[in-house]
Amino acid sequence: MDLALAPETLARWQFGITTVYHFLFVPLTISLAALTAGLQTAWVRTSKEKYLKATKFWGKLFLINIAMGVVTGIVQEFQFGMNWSDYSRFVGDIFGAPLAFEALIAFFFESTFIGLWIFGWDKLPKKIHLACIWMVSIGTVLSAYFILAANSWMQHPVGYRINKERGRAELTDFWRVLSQDTAVTQFFHTITAAFLVGGAFMVGIAAYHLARRKHVPVMRTSLRLGLVTVIAAGLLTAVSGDFLGKVMFKQQPMKMAAAEALWDGEAPAPFSLFAYGDVDKGHNEVALEIPGILSFLANGDFDSYVPGINDINKMEQEKYGPGDYRPNIPVAYWGFRWMIGFGMASFALGVLGLWLTRRKFLLPAALRTGEDEVPNLVLFRRKALSPRFGRWYWITALWTMTFPLIATSWGWIFTEMGRQPWVVYGVLRTKDAVSPGVSQGEVLTSMIVFTLLYAVLAVIEVKLLVKYVKLGPPELTEADLNPPTKIGGDDRDADRPMAFSY
Amino acid sequence: MELHDVWFVLIAFLWTGYFFLEGFDFGVGVLTKLLARDRKERRVLINTIGPVWDGNEVWLLSAGGATFAAFPEWYATLFSGFYLPLLIILFCLIVRGVAFEYRHKRDEDRWQTNWEHAIFWCSLIPAFLWGVAFGNIVRGVKINAEMEYVGNVADLLNPYALLGGLVTLTLFTFHGAVFTALKTVGDIRGRARALATRLGLLTAVLALGFLGWTQADRGDTASLVAMIVAVVALVAAIATNLAGREGWSFAFSGVTIVAAVAMLFLTLFPDVMPSSLNEAWSLTVTNASSTPYTLKIMTWCAGIAAPLVMLYQGWTYWVFRKRIGTQHIADAH
Questions:
Q1: Which of residues 29-48 of B touch A (CB under 8 A)?
Q2: Cβ atoms of residues B102 and B115 within 8 Å
């Protein structure tokens, strides 16, 4: 069969497309849930209207996103059985458990309390309503943990044995699956990256309004919250990424060698800045490198040995039999770079942003801005930026909001493609994981259906986001400022319209 | 009772919960075209399930995830075997979920009309297809010695399974009509009651045929009892609806669903997916299940999580217990 249209290839494309698409909404959902919860907490504690307005504004954008995150998540669970039935048979005993845990513990939590939060504005007392959004936030984080534990098991299988008779892997230690270093580091890296995405999203949209001098008090608060989130999350993403890298150098040396286009082992190993190579011959034709840095990334010193792609391929051939154990090297190499590059760029712009809009430090009194003013963009101690330059900064901030999304997408492509040809590293090859009974036509149909549906939904989603972003925070009503004191709502006026209705 | 038997019961429980809960929200989705006279009434209907449909749908994800973990072979055979019907169901669930959330977010006629079509069709089609799927599971499909489904789509569209599809569709719509009568005030409430009676009678005819066929095919004493409970509850649901006892009627239509699903699972046991080619190739609770260790962990998880879920989901229904009518729907959009 034509390899380009083989069910395995199509199933992989479908998994890649649906996963990357799903993961555009996941990090936004995780971080916006927590940020909205934080803003609502600020409102409950201070009763300042700007916090309630901000809660409603970001809450609405959060809801537009979570709707897509939820529905695309269903596909993720079902396609293991549909396209990867031999995978499901082989690993169900292990992989199914965290998935079921996710549904039973996290997903129920999230979806039930989101309903309470959306419709509960006039049905729940202030503090109970606030608790609901925190429940949603906890649900999203728990959900991420179980999924990442399941994924980490595929990257680095632990706590199992192979049952030859039944031809499957069987769980021997569930706690190890949940607590292994791969799961923990991957979780921290993914969660912090999620906050980088949400922080940048907030900065971008706040910048859009501030450039137009609209909704200043709400957007000023949002801008600062977003910038602080970007910086904190950016630092933690880098730190957790370094930990994760070191774990992967031990557990998946091939992936990391591919990420660096390091063909032959070296000591000390250099970090590659740019490389252009010949995959068939197994070497780079152009390579720009910084000596010693790769040794540091892998092992924490500047002179240790790091094995290369060719060495590891030979080792794996001896261990697992003849074959090619190299992933797609250009994808791994560039995916790794796009991930780090765009992640770092968003962090750098966050630092610059916070410094430019700072209020108290080093600024002469004349340049300090009050709570209701658009923050100054100040470059030197005594001079504000020219308005034109200021406008460019806001536009830059708006576009920066896509940077972490690009970074996280490439992060997943790198993680998943860097593991090939294995679906479970060292245990099960991807080609042995597809559904044998599913025809090429069926996979092709579903791939086309999902791709088209997702494309249409993307257009609708972006249009809606743009509409609600432009609309800005809502005006508060009497009902907003006087929440009910009783569960189920007050009987003040039985025929009063609902505070929220579809 | 061994752990894999416990898990058979738990998965039956999750599917029952799914059909009980999403059953009425599918039904309400179908009623947006059968019952509502204008946009405002459609919005009343959609808002009766607004706060809960998402939580209801998670029962499906739990049933899927639990099947994956407890009976991987069943999960693999079922989901890869019923490929195209599942693709259609997934498509509908995606569009339907987005439709609920996005319909009211633009104030344009065409936008809202399109999403309303989506809500109707994407509620109707899964409600029908789940019945077809379960009809086929109970009846048995072409499964070979390697536990692979070797039939095609046409094999799934047999009279028995199609009848099953009509039963779930009418039963869910009836359940939804009773729910609407329970949750609304005003004109729409009276019409929901009247429609529920007619839907109930139609359901009774179809359900009697399908359950009787099932009983004749694979039934035993236990399944006969479940069938009788289902039929009696259905009659009681229609009668209490006529008497204007909406809460009771909803409880009885719920019992009908519970008993009908119980009957299907009773006729299935100890198989989980019988093979129509050779009895020896059937998937059973023993040859399709996970290891006792995995099942033990899962039992702990379900034992703690499931009661909690029922508790806080029940609380949600309490919070939103008030009836709604057109006067509660704001004029904007």
A1: 43, 46-47
A2: yes
Nearest residue on chain A to B77, judged by CA atoms? A85
The token duo for A75 is 């596909």
Place of tokens 């250009």: A330
pLDDT of residue A70: 86
A228 closest CA partner among A3, A38, A21: A38
Report how many domains make up chain A.
Answer: 1
d(CA B97, CA A375): 40
Is residue A494 assigned to a domain? no
Tell me the chain B residues in contact with residue A108 when contact means C-beta distances shorter than 8 Å.
Answer: 55, 58, 62, 305, 309, 313
**pLDDT digits 0-9 by tens, A276-299:** 887 777 788 887 888 888 888 888
Using left for φ > 0, alpha for ψ between -120 and 50, and beta otherwise, residue B209 falls in alpha
User: Is it the case that residue B208 has pLDDT exceeding 70?
Assistant: yes
- At B32-85, the pLDDT tens digits run 999 999 988 999 999 999 999 999 999 999 999 999 999 999 999 999 999 999
* For testing contact with chain A, the best of B90, B272, B326 (most A CBs within 10 A): B90
Count the Cβ atoms, other than its own, within 10 Å of residue B255.
Answer: 18
Query: CA B262, B267, B272, B274: dihedral to nearest 10 degrees?
Result: -150
Beta-carbon count within 10 A of A349 CB: 22
The SS3 of residue A102 is helix
Q: How far apart are CA A269 and CA B268, in angstroms?
A: 61
**How far apart are the CA of B69 and the nearest CA of chain A, in angstroms?**
4
pLDDT at A2 over 60: no
Six-digit token pair at A60?
């609405």
Q: Looking at chain A, which residue has its C-alpha nearest residue B82?
A: A82
CA distance B66 to B4: 12
Look at residue A500 and tell me if it is in a domain. Answer: no
Question: Which of A90, A95, A102, A108 is most worth mutating to test chain B (most B CB atoms within 10 A of its CB)?
Answer: A108
Q: Kindly report the pTM of this predicted structure.
A: 0.92
Q: Does A496 touch chain B (CB under 8 A)?
A: yes
CA B177 – CA B191 distance, rounded (Å):
9
- Whose structure tokens read 């919005």? B43
Task: Tell me which chain B residue has its CA closest to the CA of residue A74.
Answer: B61
Where in the sequence is the domain holding A408, given as residue range(s)? 7-265+307-481
Cα A449 from Cα A459, distance rounded (Å): 16
Judge whether A286 and A340 are in contact, CB under 8 Å. Answer: no
What is the distance between the alpha carbons of residues A197 and A229, in angstroms, rounded to a whole number?
9
Place of tokens 């993720």: A76
> pLDDT tier at A361 (50, 70, 90 boundaries)?
low
Neighbours of B235 (CB within 10 A): 15
Contact in structure between A149 and A98 (CB atoms under 8 Å): yes
Question: Whole-number mean pLDDT of chain A?
Answer: 89
Inter-chain residue contact B309 with A71, CB threshold 8 Å: no
Residue A126: partners with Cβ closer than 8 Å, 6 or more residues away: A44, A483
Q: Write B269-272 long-range contacts (CB < 8 A, 24+).
A: B269/B8, B270/B5, B270/B8, B272/B8, B272/B71, B272/B74
Distance of CA A28 to the CA centre of its chain: 7
Asked if the structure places residue A74 within a domain, the reply is yes
Pairwise pLDDT comparison (A175 vs A373), residue with the higher score:
A175
Q: What would the mean pLDDT of A134-156 be, rounded to a whole number?
A: 95
**Amino acid in position B138:** V
Q: Is residue A5 scored above 90 in pLDDT?
A: no
Question: Using CA atoms in the order A126, A131, A136, A141, what is the torsion angle rounded to 10 degrees?
Answer: 140
Of A275-289, A385-399, B135-149, the range with the highest mean pLDDT is B135-149
Report angle CA B197, B198, B201 to the nearest 5 degrees.
85
Domain membership of residue A287 (yes or no) is: no
Q: Are A42 and A36 a contacting pair, CB within 8 Å?
A: no
Q: Is A354 exposed, middle or buried (0-12, 13-18, 19+ CB in 10 A)?
A: middle
Contact A124, A139 (CB under 8 A): no
